[in-house]
Amino acid sequence: MGDIRRRGAVVLGITGLVAPLTLALGAVPAQAASCTTQTGPYQKQVEKFLGRPVDGKQSAADCKAIQAFQNKHGITPNAGYAGPVTWGVMDLMNKQKAVGTNPNKAGKCPVNKGRIACVNLTLQLSWIQDGNKLVYGPVPVRTGRNGYETRTGLKKIYWRHIDHVSSIYDVPMPYSQFFDGGQAFHSVGVSMWNPPGSHGCVNMTTTTAKKYWSLLKKGDDVFVYGRKPGT
């Protein structure tokens, strides 16, 4: 969520979506929970996603792989259980990957506005287009959690502040571009798949936020549509 009390106002392609599916299954942090021996309701799906043998039965190696994924993306509890939250993140990644380089295939983001930043809440994806031309993206983003939903509709960027700090949450919001009250594009230091989501802003990686900063300007359109899973 941004600061509602302050107001002044190249295509990446699928590479950015594929990379998170290649997991570094390194040592689990010391503070992590102990690995569970319990088989989860999404065991087979999670095993397939992680490239594990798909037998539907929890093993020590399965747990280590699941736990590494949970630690990477800030999923709690992080006991290596193949439950609905962990599978929900993986399922979203699969759906994002399937979009490929045609994120506006359904034509829901306006193509008659010139340069516009689009945000698909359902798939947690954003991109910049100019008419029918894809300029940048699609890239995964992290939008508002339940109770702090990112508001839908056609907006305009009304204020940009590269070194913004929220006076509400007292947290840095680098490369902030505000488009609706306190809601803005800005970078964060957590995974884009870290549940449950933001306080309303469209969170981005630093690389993406910098690119949006260079490609957009005050007065550019933003279109937000769909509904984030779980909201």
Spatial separation of the terminal alpha carbons: 16 Å
Walk across the major sheet and give the strand order: 3-2-1-9-4
Number of strands: 9
Largest sheet: 5 strands, mixed
Rg over CA atoms: 18 Å
The unreliable regions are 2-30
Helix content: 10-25%
Descriptive terms for the model:
23% strand; 22% helix; alpha+beta; five-stranded mixed beta sheet; 9 strands; four-stranded mixed beta sheet; globular; disordered N terminus; 231 residues
Structure description:
By secondary structure, the chain is of the alpha+beta class. It is 22% helix and 23% strand. It has five helices and nine strands; from the N terminus they run ααααββββββββαβ.
Question: What is the fold's blueprint, element by element?
Answer:
Blueprint: H1 15-18, H2 43-49, H3 60-73, H4 84-99, E1 115-120, E2 125-130, E3 133-140, E4 153-156, E5 159-165, E6 172-180, E7 183-187, E8 202-204, H5 206-215, E9 221-225
Parallel strand pairs: 1-9, 7-8
Antiparallel strand pairs: 1-2, 2-3, 4-9, 5-6, 6-7
Question: Outline of this structure?
Answer:
The protein is built from five helices and nine strands; from the N terminus they run ααααββββββββαβ. By secondary structure, it is of the alpha+beta class.
